[in-house]
Write a structure and sequence with these properties.
Strand order of the largest sheet: 1-2-3
Distance between the termini: 51 Å
Number of helices: 18
Helix content: 40-55%
Largest sheet: 3 strands, antiparallel
Shape: globular
Number of strands: 9
Length: 433
């Protein structure tokens, strides 16, 4: 018994030493925020803040479909429960109307609210911590120029111990690198700016970087791709097979500006929101800087070794205007495609009414797991704000068996790969909507 007690005491002491060591390391290495009086608002500051709020993609997380911008309520479905975004309009009762510049900066840099309680990293303060104070204050000035919206926060649905906010202090000790962005002297100016746009503002890694056991970003696999809320955020490193290294500058620019890169990808789900609310608003200089930065991001395989690059020979085969003669006429997937899909997408994968309907070469149909293809079938896709013809209705009324069959048919026809979509996987993704 004494031995067990000694072991337990030793574990507690070692844990305390470890926590104290982390706290000391963070205290020494993290940047100190300078306290200052609120900056006076001006039309120029508000205009700059509006641009930065778009670049930081704030509204995508703080607005529900049909709701008021920045009023919150967006659910984040996580393995340990649901977290809801909050109201960041200048409403004094339910928003941030009483917050000072220092309060706002502390939330972005340290994940701490005005009342001193800790935010969860579903709010990407682990990325925003790199943002300059001047940019943070400009965003606040823009938010405070908006009409206040009375919208009380929804109660989070988290299991124990994840519902204990105070525990985030220890998580921050281990995983929050609270330092502002600094230019790398070995890079070109546009590459540094692109890094700032991608990480301090756009927080691309929050979706595109895998997470570790504690749900913190695994920086050793930056932009290698990850699955999030049922969707696959693809690899966007410089790798030419798994990432975007083989994309042309024009294809990347088109994707950020329009949500569509010919023969590469069409944005849907969370990425469609990112394009609509954020990347299409970037000026040409920042868009080019972002592309320049992605060119130097270390190449990574994945996700999980999955090759989602199109095969040139399969692309040639998929350009036929009709199915191959030896195709099984009784195949369920083919019959559904003929009846519900071919009139828009065509058998050659070029799209009928709009290039946005083109399927040939897309990552989603070259992924044997069919993750985003399945989610697009379940939820539909909507980029009407960018192009009036860029939308697809939901096919959720079809059964899991039918959706798995048509997904596998599309993967086989347009990539030549064997689809791995099962009715069980469709059912699982249906629950993640």
């Amino acid at each position: 018994m004494r031995t067990l007690v000694r072991i337990a005491v030793a574990i507690v002491v070692l844990a305390a030493i470890g926590i104290a060591g982390l706290a000391g390391y963070r205290w020494l290495h993290n940047d100190r925020d300078v306290m200052a009086a609120d900056a006076p608002s001006s039309p120029e500051l508000v205009k700059r803040g509006e641009y930065l709020a778009h670049a930081a993609d704030c509204v995508a997380c703080h607005q529900v479909p049909g709701g008021k911008p920045y009023a919150g309520g967006t659910p984040f479905k996580l393995p340990f429960g649901v977290i809801y975004s909050t109201n960041i309009t200048p409403d004094k009762e339910t928003g941030i109307g009483t917050w000072s510049d220092d309060d706002f900066v502390r939330a972005l840099h340290h994940g701490v609210r005005k009342d001193g309680s800790h935010l969860y990293p579903a709010f990407p303060y682990t990325s925003y911590t790199r943002m300059s104070r001047d940019d943070a204050v400009a965003i606040k000035a823009y938010l405070f120029s908006l009409e206040p919206v009375h919208a009380p926060a929804k109660k989070n649905e988290l299991s124990f111990p994840f519902n204990q906010r105070w525990a985030m202090a220890f998580w921050n000790m281990a995983f929050l690198d609270a330092r502002r962005f600094r230019d790398d002297p070995d890079r070109k100016p546009e590459q540094n700016r692109g890094d700032y746009v991608a990480n301090a503002l756009g927080h691309c890694g929050e979706c595109h970087t895998p997470r570790n056991f504690a749900f913190a970003l695994d920086d050793s696999k930056e932009f290698a791709g990850a699955d999030i809320q049922g969707w696959r955020a693809y690899n966007i490193t410089s790798d030419k097979t798994f990432g975007v290294g083989a994309w042309t500058d024009q294809q990347l620019s088109d994707y950020f500006a329009k949500g569509h890169a010919e023969g590469r990808a069409a944005a849907s789900g969370p990425m469609a929101e990112a394009v609509e609310y954020s990347t299409r608003h970037l000026n040409e200089g920042d868009r080019n800087a972002l592309i320049s930065y992605l060119r130097i991001v270390e190449a990574q395989p994945g996700p999980a070794g999955t090759d989602i690059a199109p095969d040139p020979e399969s692309l040639k085969k998929s350009t036929a205007w009709a199915p191959p003669p030896d195709a099984a006429k009784g195949d369920l997937g083919r019959r559904i495609f003929e009846g519900a899909c071919a009139s828009c997408h065509q058998y050659n994968g070029k799209g009928q009414q709009t290039p946005y309907a083109g399927l040939a070469g897309l990552r989603s149909v070259n992924d044997p797991d069919g993750v985003n293809l399945t989610m697009a079938l379940l939820q539909g896709s909507d980029l009407k704000e960018i192009n009036s013809g860029a939308w697809m209705p939901s096919f959720a009324a079809y059964s899991d068996v039918e959706l798995a069959a048509v997904a596998n048919y599309v993967i086989g026809h347009f990539s030549g790969k064997q689809g791995q979509v099962t009715p069980e996987k469709v059912a699982e993704r249906r629950k993640q909507q």
